[in-house]
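It is worth pausing here to work through a concrete case rather than discussing structure prediction in the abstract. The textbook approach is simple: state the sequence, then state the predicted structure, then interpret. We follow exactly that order.
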Amino acid sequence: MSIAAAHDEICTAALQGRNAMRRLRVSALIQHLDMLLDEVERLNLASRKSVPATWRKRIAEMGPLLPFDLEPGWLRPRSTLQAIDVLFEIQSRLMRLRSGPLAPDLIESDAALEPDPAYPA
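Step two, the predicted structure:
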């Protein structure tokens, strides 16, 4: 095996390792979101209209852990339904990341969606 071939093989293995670590990190975030969703859905089923302040803090603390940016207003939901919507949106984005890059036509159609007025920019 030549030095160039060995170098290419090492680079490929390193890239595969980084991709595997990224998928593991994203999977861990999705599992955490599942737990949060379960909790907030219980609040909703118990007819709680608003999420406790401690809950808003838990969601806001997720912001820096995410591999993408969200509008700051999204991380401060007031109602249980807003919290569920936010968590599902974050989960959806994470699942798309875990499955690989989006096709350009999906990116364009996603960008064409109108923002939800319930979540101020």
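Step three, interpretation. The chain has a mean pLDDT of 78. The radius of gyration is 19 Å.
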